[in-house]
Structure formats: C-alpha cells, structure tokens
Specification:
mainly beta, 18 strands, 9% helix, globular
Length: 233
C-alpha cells in the first residue's frame, strides 16, 4: 500500500489556490507534485525551447514560471528535440511519435494520442509537445511504449521520472521523482491523485522539477525544452 501525506485532500483539490505544491510518498518513493487550476483562468501553461542544449537555469531565464518540468526527448548528439514542439503557434521541432500535450488558444490543456508518423493539425493550439509516453488512459494505468513505437528498452526499466496528467475537472497535475520507478509505478502514483489521463516525459538524468524559484530536482544534463506554468497577474 502507498503512504500519502495528510495533505492528500488539499492536493486533490488544489487547496483552492491557482497553483499549489505538495510532496507525497507512494510505495516508499518520494514524489513532488504541483496542481495547477488551469480551468480557473488564473494560470497559464506554455512550452519553452532552445535550438541547442543549455542549462535549465538559462532555459527558464526569460519565462519566470512558478513551476517547470522537463519536456520531450532530445538527441544528445544533435542537441535537438526528436519530437514536435509548438511555441506560441510556431512549430519549432518535428517528430511523429508519442502522445501529445497541447494548450489551445483559450489556455486549456489537452492530452491525446496520434498514430505513429501521422501529422498533427496544430492550428487549434498555441503551445504543445509530442513524444510523451502514455501511462494513464481513461483512468487505467497501462503504459505500452512499444505500441507507441518507442524502441529504447530503458523506458521500461526503473528511472527517475517526470510526468503530467489531467483530472476530470481539467486541473493539471505535474509530477517528478528522483527515485527510480517504473512507468507503471508512476502511473499508479498519478492515478492516486485523481489523474484520468497522464503521460511520462523525458526523465532519467534529464529529470527536472522547478518550483517557486528553486530546483527541487535539478537535472544532471543540459536541456533544450521544458513545460512551464505561470500564475496570471
């Protein structure tokens, strides 16, 4: 059985705040979690990207987010992302594999699957990324990276993980752990907090979780893209 902090109720509801942080323990692993009340209109979700690998500090320098997590996968050799990234309506990277996380022009976050090698009509969205691994689908924990055409066997193993998911009310939950867990373990931790649809993003040595001016988990390598959440003034 997983052990959760006594702040579970607040974490499930977001505590009535636009962006709220909580940590919890599940199956002896420590997770960081942020709940962003996106439907309330008090926070905004964006992607940030650089054309080559830079430190996480530099990648976030101009966005000043409340919370930020690692984005999609990249090639260390080319220093480029290997999946699609949409920044302010502009497709800055291409790649046709994996689940999509997209933010429409009204600020709502969507998670959806697109078949391998099929193009996406990004015109409905302002920000987004592709290349995520589906871990929670309709409330069921059932990761299947092979079916999504992910070939790296390390994805199946235990590693530090980054994930995000949506609750039925549209709230966005961001997760990260530096403990080594499987995709299924991550999915069960996400489901415990009400996530109905969720994905795993780039993890391992790329795992990054930034909150309120501090890196609670700092990556062990440079990055080229992240997903950030800011509070509207």
């Amino acid at each position: 059985m997983g052990i959760v902090t006594t702040a579970l109720l607040l974490s499930l509801t977001g505590g009535g705040r636009p962006i709220s942080y909580n940590s919890f323990e599940f199956n002896h692993h420590l997770y960081h979690m942020v709940v962003a009340n996106v439907p309330g209109g008090f926070c905004e979700v964006k992607t940030v990207q650089n054309d080559w690998l830079v430190t996480a500090h530099k990648l976030l320098a101009n966005s000043h987010p409340v919370v930020a997590i690692t984005g999609t996968f990249f090639s260390p050799g080319s220093e480029k992302a290997v999946a699609e990234i949409l920044v302010d309506g502009n497709l800055v990277s291409r790649g046709a594999r994996g689940t999509v996380v997209a933010v429409d022009w009204y600020g709502d976050v969507k998670i959806f699957d697109v078949p391998f090698n099929r193009r996406i009509d990004w015109s409905k969205y302002q920000f987004g990324l592709r290349g995520a691994v589906r871990v929670v689908d309709g409330g069921l924990v059932r990761p299947n990276p092979v079916a999504q055409r992910f070939h790296d066997s390390n994805i199946w193993g235990s590693a530090a993980r980054v994930g995000l998911g949506l609750k039925p009310n549209g709230a966005l939950l961001l997760f990260a752990t530096k403990d080594h867990v499987t995709l299924s373990e991550l999915g069960r931790a996400m489901k415990l907090h009400g996530v109905r649809n969720g994905v795993s993003l780039d993890g391992g040595s790329s795992t990054c979780f930034y909150y309120n001016g501090k890196f609670l988990i700092e990556p062990h390598r440079k990055l080229c893209n992240m997903l950030v959440v800011s509070q509207k003034l």
